[in-house]
Amino acid sequence: MAERGAVVEGVRAYRLIAVMWVRSSMTYRTSFAVTLLGNLMVTGLDFVGILLMFSQVDSLGGWSLYEVAFLYGLSATSFGLSDLALGSLEGLGGRMRDGSFDVLMVRPAPVLAQVGADRFALRRLGRITQGLVVLCWALVSVDVEWTAAKALLVPVMVISGAAIFCAVFVAGAAFQILAQDAAEVQNAFTYGGTTLLQYPPTVFGKDLVRGVTFMLPLAFVNWVPAAHVLGRPYPVGLPGWAAFASPAVALVCCASAGLAWRAGLRSYRSTGS
Amino acid sequence: MAVSDDEAFIDVDKVEKVFDVRRRAGFLRRELRRVRAVDSLSFRVARGEMVGYIGPNGAGKSTTIKMLTGILTPSGGRLRVAGIDPSRERTRLAHRIGVVFGQRTTLWWDLPLIDSYRLMHRMYRIPDARYRENLDRLVHLLDLGALLDVPVRQLSLGQRMRGDVVAALLHDPEVLYLDEPTIGLDVISKARVREFLREVNAERGTTVLLTTHDLQDIERLCSRVMVIDRGRLMYDGPLAGLHEVGESERTLVVDLERELPPIEAEPARVVRVEGPRQWLAFPAGESAAALVARIAARYPLVDLSVREPDIESVIARMLHAPGDAAGLPQDRSEGVGS
Q1: Average pLDDT of the residues of chain A
Q2: Which member of A207, B33, B264, B307 has the greatest number of CB atoms within 10 A?
């Protein structure tokens, strides 16, 4: 009950602060328009790279262009959503170094919600837009016999995937409390993770695939459920129902990340003055 | 100062804060040092008191405030504010306290001042009528009415500080922590902030704990002062007592009609003579008026002024006073190997 109260409080505080940041960014309209446009272009070029690759080869690790586009769209959309929601956690180390984190700690709202909403930026919608475009293109092009279960898996993947990435952001933030200049470590798992998932698991070594299945279960963002949708074997030996395990995996990830955050916050040391 | 159990609003009992500091000691070698930022600190503050909390840089002032607000978790001891354990129930406590960090603003840089207050209104769930009443009163008292629609980035330092003080009081906190509230402010802004704090304390009974480098802040505001050094409480009592313990001195500067031999007026002693101008040091606890009257009766006075001792020198004298009651402060850091 107390947990639920904290979540409700957190969402409320998040909304209040996000609105303030959106209004702040609107005081510089031109700058906002330019960064949004730039963001769309940079993320757009990202997929162009994959298209260029397929102009030279017919398949990547045995996967066709549309199948890779399916993976890409899922990974980019999930990550885009989590980046919009909690991408600001990357800046936590800076907030702690300049002492402004302390100001957030004396307000009557969950700190995670406050740092999550910190510098909330609508320009991050660019990545989501681009991911959705690629995903839609893949959905209409890919050769799949759609069933109700498979169709339902697509939104489930996007939402569970976003939740798993959110958990990675939060766990990274908890780690940043301990090592205040660890933003790059966090980036390796967030930006690195989404890039990894944009390629078929068959191009990577077995150990890496096992690692992102059992250790840091990024494989449940798209690899495992997408394999089921596309009628391909799972990247590692898993029972048949594993394709539908993503929400449960996401839940476990979020709970663990929440505990890590709580532990991190208790060990927070603040700056000298 | 004696504050009984039930009226202690802030209750600090043998609180410690130990930091492990890793330092580079050569290639890949780290030296671990254990620093005791706050060492067995105990004090109580009653509801409605105004207390000055002073000490040299790095003495543990900020660490104490951060533990009292729930930012830092104590390493040991017991700490309660309004009966709440700050680090365990940080958000519940947040509704009852107000904090002003002198160097960090809670205001939104790019938005009009009023927007920051509206956020407070919603975040603290202040009832509408209460919010409007408090906002009107505070804005009037601190003369911010004309600035409410100005983006915070365009405010002067003094205006922003006043803005921060308003933000910290909108939700009617029972205790207000101020960390260097007058730092960098001009004389008029300082006076206004002080006058305002006195009023808030008198009218609302708000408990105030402030850290400062400005002795005048303490003189104008606080009936009680606590001095901390190396994480330990070295003095707790009225400001006058601090002067006594530290044997601190005020300086009387007198301009005579002509050059004269050094003035003789107990308990003052002449510390400097420059033509017709003489500097006399006298104990800060003594009345300047009586001394001036005695000198005026015997010497041809033209002009005079009194200079207050600054806080650093008062503390320095106190900490190094011979026969210091609290004993010599111990070295607070101990090596723990690498």
Answers
A1: 92
A2: B33
Does the beta-carbon distance from B91 to A109 stay under 8 Å? yes
Distance CA B236, CA B242 (A): 8
ipTM for this prediction: 0.89
Q: Is B249 helix (H, G, I), strand (E, B) or coil?
A: strand
**% of chain B exceeding 70 in pLDDT:** 91
Q: Which tens digit of pLDDT belongs to each residue from A140-198?
A: 999 999 999 999 999 999 999 999 999 999 999 999 998 877 888 888 999 999 999 99
Of A93, A29, A38, A110, the residue nearest B110 (C-alpha) = A29
Model pTM score: 0.84
Q: Which residues of A touch B (CB under 8 A)?
A: 9, 13, 16-17, 20, 23-24, 27-28, 99-100, 102-103, 105-110, 266-270, 272-273
What is the topology classification, in CATH, of domain B5-243? Rossmann fold (3.40.50)
Any idea what the Cα angle at residue B207 is, between residues B17 and A272, rounded to 5°? 30
Higher pLDDT, B313 or B89: B89
- d(CA A89, CA A91) in angstroms, rounded, equals 5
CATH number of B248-319: 3.30.70
Interface mutation vs chain A, best among B36, B64, B71, most A CBs within 10 Å: B71
The three-class DSSP label of residue A238 is coil
- Residues of chain B neighbouring A106 (CB-CB closer than 8 A): 69-71, 94, 97, 99
